Amino acid sequence: MLKGxxxxxxxxxxxxxxxxxxEALGFTVVPGGRHPVGTHNALVAFGxxxxxELIAFYEKxxxxxxxxxxxxxxxxxxxxxxxxxxxxxxxxxxxxxxEIDDPSPLSRIRPxxxxxAWVLSIPRGDHRGVAPFLIQDExxxxxxxxxxxxxxxxxxxxxxxxxxxxxxxxxxxWYAEVLRQQAQPIQRPELGGAGxxxxxxxxxxxxxxxxxxxxxxxxxxxxxxxxxxxxxLRAPKPAALDPTKTxxxxxxxx
Length: 254
Known about the structure:
The chain is of the alpha+beta class. The chain folds into 2 domains: 2-144, 2,3-Dihydroxybiphenyl 1,2-Dioxygenase, domain 1 (Roll), CATH 3.10.180; 157-253, Roll (2,3-Dihydroxybiphenyl 1,2-Dioxygenase, domain 1), CATH 3.10.180.10. Helices cover 20% and strands 39% of the residues. The chain has 6 helices and 15 strands. The chain has helices spanning 15-24, 67-71, 86-96, 141-144, 168-179, 216-224; strands spanning 2-11, 30-34, 39-45, 51-57, 75-83, 104-109, 115-121, 133-137, 157-164, 184-188, 193-200, 203-210, 227-234, 239-240, 251-253. It has an 8-stranded mixed β-sheet with strand order 2-3-4-1-5-8-7-6. It has a 7-stranded mixed β-sheet with strand order 10-11-12-9-13-15-14. A hairpin with a 2-residue loop joins strand 11 and strand 12. Helix 3 (86-96) packs antiparallel against helix 5. It is globular, with a radius of gyration of 17 Å.
């Protein structure tokens, strides 16, 4: 069963620059370590158990799923959902029409030398970033997610992720079949779009398509294709974060 967002992924050109910028925004940023696929990360963990992953490349890897989005400006590029039944939820997404790979292992070496291990199922092609990638830990999850979850800006967790698509209907069908719940219709006039909203554990996913050929969503789809567009974080005071300081990620505090 899907349990909610495990984390959202923000691709950045320089990890140290990103760390300093997010710290200046009031986040506690914890070094994550290196993956054997040419990436390294830093993490912003929240009290609801989710986190933000700031990720950069320490060596070129054009075959990596986040390499091309980074070349197009980076920012929010993907989102991961936690599951307690990786094979079952992978099969459920596949049966619903999502092109998704079988579970495969990945690891990360923390700065203190501890080797983390988990298993991922990753959507393919145009479904990547529209359907979530799925994770199940092999080493304890509390070792992967930082214990430092308090932030000067008061953020306590992820609120919602908005995904821009050209056609809501097939994507709504995926989630209805996997979650066994009907998505709720929504209007997003500030984006010039409409779509559906689904609830996964404590989190919300909005899947939105433009209503015409102009507007923020239409421009995003023309430049980046169907993909995550924005995310909100739960905080005591609402605010929009400066995208130049979030390294291109559209993030709002709500």
